[in-house]
């Protein structure tokens, strides 16, 4: 059937009119937007404790801890119950196994996190698979059944969620097909989160593997973010109730380039300013393959530059959602020993304290040797 442009415009006007009169009995979008802002307020950030079973077991084995359900439970218990952690951390992302577990006194993990003054979150994607027809690229899985899983997670106490896409950089990669497919999946996930009353974190991560340079990483990060926010707009996702989790712009791990912190900050802010709408509630960086100190110093440089560069102050809070950069030093000190739990907790809180300072552009290396106040 042929349809002329005038007919299409009339149809669009009719559909917009219908949308305006539909009942709005779903979750309160203002509440979701408020929660999204709370998660990045005053420099506090997010502890990512959502490693898969296989990934966490490998890390536990490396330090001599038990690589089983009980070992994972005990480890994550002391993470989320570390005294004083909520002064620096606003939320904790859990894995499916953990959100169903309880602490030693029988308290469900989400309840323990909430009682400590933080918000419970949940990883909802189910990992990645090869993207058909595109060697070396992946698509994130997990949309099947997601509506029901989100309802269950919400009932278990989750208040926000996370979905991660991975973007490889190589000769000819990423393809437009990879960027579009992952962007569309993230947009569908975000819409389902809002329907369920959960704040979505979208994470289009440009991977550090490879020998590409800083400028290549900048171009790929721009492209990934641009595609992602185009897809979100096409599905009418409310950006003021969305958080972006993103990589810093860095050369590949195999590159000979060694940019200083200011160069990383400048490239990262360029990617964000070019691609991320001001309406987004906040941005949290992932630490990726960076050391704890590098992740802290670079976050500090980004926040210092964000308020001083010639473009004017950044329109979003720039905080953190770190996994290994917060946990790594504490995990090594703990080493699976019951008598080292408190030492591990103190180091976790110290790392979180330094990272929160970096999220406000007030980090001082001297803080590394000072106990949390």
Number of E-type strands: 10
Q: What is the end-to-end distance? A: 71 Å
- The secondary-structure class comes to alpha/beta
Low-confidence stretches: 1-26
Overall, the morphology is: globular
Strand content: 5-15%
Main pleated sheet = 8 strands, parallel, barrel
Proportion of helical residues:
40-55%
Helices and strands, in N-to-C order? HHEHHEHHEEEHEHEHEHEHEHH
Question: If helices are DSSP runs of H or I spanning 4 or more residues, what is the number of helices?
Answer: 13
Q: What order do the strands of the largest sheet run in, or round the barrel if closed?
A: 1-2-3-6-7-8-9-10
Mean pLDDT: 93
Question: Rg from C-alpha positions?
Answer: 21 Å
Could you characterize what this model shows?
With 373 residues, the chain is an alpha/beta fold. The chain has helices at 5-21, 29-39, 53-62, 69-80, 96-99, 109-115, 146-156, 176-196, 214-234, 261-275, 292-306, 324-334, 341-358; strands spanning 45-48, 89-94, 119-123, 128-130, 138-140, 160-167, 199-206, 243-246, 282-285, 318-322. The longest helix has 21 residues, at 176-196. The N and C termini lie far apart (71 Å).
